[in-house]
Write a structure and sequence with these properties.
Blueprint lengths: L3 H15 L7 H13 L4 H9 L10 H15 L7 H13 L4 H10 L10 H12 L1
Helix pairs in contact: 1-2, 1-3, 1-4, 4-5, 4-7, 5-6, 6-7
């Protein structure tokens, strides 16, 4: 299980990803707030991260990094329109988390073949398992 600092770091990273143009859409805010609740982070602490981001903390668990990457994919797909620049940002987030370049590319390539461009969690896990072994 991840600790509080790691949880805040995850949320801070997601907020930074969502604030690509200095503001955040309500659908993105609500999605992130839902993630905060899952992580047992109060709304006050969550809102504080918008003003005072937490430094990135590298997750030790490979499975937690995959889950975080999946959250970022879901977040990116909320507004259903994303640019190649956002794909590059997502790819770079994945690399920074220590995920496989090939797995990240495979997920991004296969997104187009799924409804709403959302890769199912078990499919995503299988992609990363192949590269991890």
């Amino acid at each position: 299980m991840i600790n509080r600092v790691e949880k805040l770091s995850l949320l801070s990273e997601m907020i930074a990803f969502a604030m690509k143009d200095e503001n955040i859409k309500s659908i993105e805010y609500n999605f992130l707030l839902g993630i905060a609740k899952q992580l047992e982070i109060s709304k006050e602490d969550f809102d504080y991260l918008f003003k005072s981001p937490v430094h990135y903390v590298h997750l030790k668990s490979h499975s937690e990094r995959i889950v975080q990457f999946h959250r970022l994919v879901l977040l990116m797909n909320l507004d259903k329109e994303f640019t190649s620049k956002e794909l590059v940002r997502l790819h770079n987030f994945g690399l920074r988390m220590g995920l496989s370049h090939e797995s990240i590319n495979r997920v991004l390539d296969l997104m187009e073949s799924f409804p709403n461009k959302i890769v199912p969690p078990d499919f995503l896990i299988d992609i990363f398992k192949v590269q991890y072994n």
